[in-house]
Amino acid sequence: MGTLLHFKNLYVQAFENCKPEIVVFLLKAYSVFCGLMLFMAVYAFMHRALHGFEF
After folding, report:
1. CA-angle at 46, arms to 55 and 36, nearest 5°
2. How far apart are CA 36 and CA 22, in angstroms?
3. What is the C-alpha to C-alpha distance for residues 12 and 18, in angstroms, rounded to an integer?
4. Where are the alpha helices (DSSP H) in 1-55?
5. What confidence tens digit (pLDDT) does each residue in 1-28 have?
6. 15 in Cβ contact with 28 (< 8 Å)
7. pTM over the 0.85 mark
8. How many Cβ atoms are within 10 Å of 50's Cβ, its own excluded?
9. Each residue of 27-49: pLDDT tens digit?
10. What b/e sequence results for 10-38 when a residue is b if at least 16 CB atoms lie within 10 Å of its CB, and e otherwise?
């Protein structure tokens, strides 16, 4: 749990005092998008690995 809290603190500090606000919003949206894509890639790999890599 401490690692997640550390990453949260790094994420919050990265966007402190950043201007303009629209750029901050776009960067946050992009980071969420990248996180979702990474999760989907790991999920797809695990699904293929557990089901015998059948295409």
Report:
1. 105
2. 21
3. 11
4. 2-14, 21-50
5. 688 899 889 888 988 888 888 998 998 8
6. yes
7. no
8. 8
9. 889 989 999 999 999 999 999 99
10. eeeeeeeeeeeeeeeeeeeeeeeeeeeee
